[in-house]
Amino acid sequence: MSESTSSTLQYRFDGPEEAPVLILGPSLGTTWHMFDRQVPELVKQWRVLRFDLPGHGGAPAHPAGSVAELATRLLATLDSLGVQRFGYAGCALGGAVGIELALRHPERLASLALVAASPRFGTPDEFRQRGVIVRTNGLDPIARSAPDRWFTGGFAAAQPAITEWAVQMVRTTDPGCYIAACEALAAFDVRAELGRIGVPTLVLVGSEDQVTGPAEARTLVAGIPDARLAVVPGASHLVPVEQPAAVTDLLVRHFSTAWQQPFDTGQTALPAAAAPVAAPAAPAPVAMPTAAPAAPPRTAPVAEIAAAAVPPRPVAPPDRYETGLKIRREVLGDAHVEGVLARADEFSGDFEELVTRYAWGEVWDRPGLDRKSRSCVTLTALVAGGHLEDLAVHTRAALRNGLTPQEIKEVLLQAAVYCGVPAAGSAFRVAQQVIREETTPAE
Q1: Predicted confidence (pLDDT) at residue 305 exceeds the cutoff of 60
Q2: How many whole angstroms separate alpha carbon 247 and alpha carbon 240?
């Protein structure tokens, strides 16, 4: 695969070419090596394809800003290999890709396993805040805290080599791709669509998972018509790493017994995958310690997939209030917007609707400026007007919109020249406090 293209994903095959294809999708911050200990058993029945997320494991750093885009790139990779039908198991963000495939491309999916997954991953604010921290401090704070999120305390203490492997795996991820993946998770919410998933589904979760735990797993099982739940004792978020034998056994049993017939011909055979080509030179991925030596990564040839011609449909005008509410939440955060709307009453409610509809649904939605530029303009205007309370809110918004603390400082220095030193001095004090709060990693 050429590193100049963003249409496909870095991948590797293991197992016999004539076997049906089973795909394993990794979680945010990990590489395909998180499934190293499942592969030896799985390749006895399947041709296993593992892929890396953009910018992970030395993959080309072409950020994907949505789960749908990741699914599209995966399908383009499979199309280039001649793989039409497959089973899929994904962990966390990889599980979200599996849900997207089941909802939008059910004809391609024979069976599904969702590991440490959720129909909505926390709140959008949590992942956008993580993006702010990475943009300001790099990935080191996230990397150092990864073992606490991924493993039980006992496992982390007993397996220092694997703990360090986890830290290094996150640390070597491309920051821009990591931030884009956070944005993808922030926007992912399929709670209302789970009933449309028609593929046999295993929902697998560690009993000690504090990220997407048994409660989220039960939500998936309750919403997906043909789903069953497996809770693995003594495991946290990266359950395939912490309890590899249990996860392997569950995956083998599920995909051996729940492989749905193709929609059209009723045949279960899959086309053999084309022989993959060698990968280009890339930074060495971090491999899990004590696992069997991995074969060199193999990647997909470049392929342009032509879209079928679809006659245009009449497009209804957007609801500016709903558009504005969505943008207002994305920029200012759910908690802030919900607080403002909760305080609105009969007297102020019309004003909040006006602001949402016209400021956010009209002006902030215009294509002429990106959100970073609009934040720069907004900060300058608030300094000029002396609106320090709103300046605090929009400093947080500027960080969410991609400005770094250094760039915010430059905006305020520019404002000092044209709006006055006293106004800018007050603005610096407000912005400094907000930046400290927003960019200090949690202990």
Answers
A1: no
A2: 6
- The stretch 79-91 carries a mean pLDDT of 97
DSSP classification of residue 175: H
**If you average pLDDT over every residue of the chain, what do you get?**
88
> Reduced to 3 states, what is the DSSP secondary structure of residue 345?
coil
CB 212 within 8 A of CB 188: no
**314 confidence band (pLDDT: 50, 70, 90):** low
Give the single-character DSSP code of 362.
Answer: I
How far, in Å, CA of 333 to CA of 165, rounded?
34
**pLDDT score at 116:** 98
Per-residue HEC secondary structure of 70-100 comes to HHHHHHHHHHHHCCCCEEEEEECHHHHHHHH
Residue 354: strand, helix, or coil: helix
Residue 25 neighbours by CB distance under 10 Å: 32
Crossing angle for the helix pair 67-81 and 93-104, to the nearest 10 degrees: 70
Task: Please say whether the beta carbons of 202 and 107 come within 8 A.
Answer: no
- Considering only CA atoms, give the Rg of the chain: 24
CA-based nearest residue to 105, from 82, 81, 80, 88: 88
Task: Concatenate the DSSP letters of all residues of 101-140 into one string.
Answer: HHHH-GGGEEEEEEES--SS-S-HHHHHHHHHHHHHH-SH
Q: Among candidates 61, 120, 62, which has minimal Cα distance to 95?
A: 120
pTM of the full structure: 0.78
Diameter over CA atoms, the chain: 75
Lowest-confidence segment of 161-165, 234-238, 284-288, 356-360 by average pLDDT: 284-288
- Contact between 181 and 64 under an 8 Å Cβ cutoff? The reply is yes
Q: What is the pLDDT of residues 169-179, one digit of tens each?
A: 999 999 999 99
Of residues 317 and 53, more confidence is placed in: 53
What is the distance between the alpha carbons of residues 427 and 415, in angstroms, rounded to a whole number? Answer: 9
What six digits make up the tokens of 334?
């759910």
Q: Which residues of 68-84 are buried (b: 16+ CB within 10 A; e: fewer)?
A: bbbbbbbbbbbbbbebe
Compute, in degrees rounded to 10, the torsion defined by CA atoms 77, 122, 128, 140. Answer: -80
- Is residue 30 within 8 Å of residue 287, measured between CB atoms? no
CA–CA gap between residue 302 and residue 297 (Å, rounded):
16
What is the Cα–Cα distance from 248 to 258, expressed in whole angstroms?
15
How far is the C-alpha of 253 from the C-alpha of 208, rounded, in Å? 23
The owner of tokens 């305020």 is: 412
